Amino acid sequence: MAIHNFNAGPAAMPRAVLEKAQSELLEVAGSGMSVMEMSHRSKEFQNIIDGAESGIRRLLKVPDKYAILFLQGGASLQFATIPMNLRRPGCGADYVDTGSWASKAIKEAKVTGRVNVAWSGKGENYSRMPKAGELNLAADAEYVHICTNETIGGIQWWTPFPKTSAPLIADMSSEIMSRVFDVSDFGMIYAGAQKNLGPSGLAVVILRKDLLGRAPEDLPVFLRYSTHAAEGSLYNTPNTWAVYMVKLTCEWLESMGGIAAMQKINEKKAAALYSTIDSSSFWRSPVEKESRSIMNVVWRLPGEALEEQFVSQAKKAGLIGLKGHRSVGGIRASIYNAVTPESVNALVSFMKEFEKRNG
Ligand code: PMP
User: Which of 110, 117, 264, 336 has a Cα at 20 to 30 A from 29?
Assistant: First the structure.
C-alpha cells in the first residue's frame, strides 16, 4: 500500500532522492564502491562534500563570508556549543522562548552562563511568535537566539526577523530550505538534517566567519566551530552517508526550481490543511493565524478519544505520523518539502470523511 508520510523527523524524503541513492548504493561516481565504504579523505568523497556545500550555498545564496559546516550531535549539540563558542566568559546572551525547542536551547545555555529571556510565549501556551517590538533585548548580549519554526507547537516566524545589534542566531531545523530568507540577517543558522535536508545524524551550520574567533582557549578542540571550519568539516570522520544524501537533496531542490518554487508549493499545501481546519468547528487550531507554520500543522479535535481514533484510522488508511508530540497531544501533520501535494490532498479527503462520520 502506498503510504503518506507525515512524520516530524526523521521524515519523508523525496522519492527521486531515494531512487538515486538506491541506484548508487553499490557504486557511487564510478568509484567501484558505496559512499559508505570510501575514505572521507578520498577525492571522490571530497567531491561529494563539496557538492553538498555548494548546493546549500547556491540554494540559500550563502555569501562567501559564511562557513558551512557538517557536524554531528544534531541540532541539540548546537544548543550547547553555541553559548560555549559565542558567549564570552562573564557575558550574557538573549534567547526568545517560543516553545519546546527554544526552551531546550535556553536550558542548555544556562548550564554554562548567563541567559536573558527576551520574550516568552509560555504564558500563552506558546500559541504565537512575538510581534515586532516585543523583544526585550539586553544591551550587552553576545548574540540573540531564536527558533524560527517550532516543530512541536506548530508556529513559525513570519514577521521580519528582528534587526539586532548582536548577531542573530536561528535554529531552523524544521524549516530550512522551505522558504526564501536572507542569510545576511543572521550570524549563524543551524539545522538538524532529518527534516528538509537528508537523514538524521548530521547538523548543518552556516556561520559568519568573523565569529569563529570568539571561542575561549579552554574550550575542547572538538567543540570549537573554528576547528571544523579550518578542516572543511573533515577534522574527524563525518557522517559520509548523510552528507551524500544532503548533496542529492540539494540537486533535487534545484531540479524543482529552488527555494522560491518550493515555498509556493509549501504554502499551497499548508493552505489546503488550514482551510479544512477553519472550515468547521469540529477542528480547532491552537495557534494564532499569523504564526501558523507551513511545515508543522497542528490541530485539535473535540476530545482526546476522538483524536486517538483519528490517528489510528488514518494509519489504517495509510496516513502515517499524525499523532501530535507526546508533550502537547492533538494532531500534527509535518509537511516538509518532500511531502507531496497528493499526500496532503489524501489527508484533506480523510479529514472530510472523518468529520462526516464523527462530526
Ligand atoms: N530544534 C528543532 C526546531 C527541532 O525540531 C529539533 C528536532 N525535532 C531539534 C532542534 C533537535 O534536533 P536533533 O534531534 O537533531 O538534535
Answer: 336
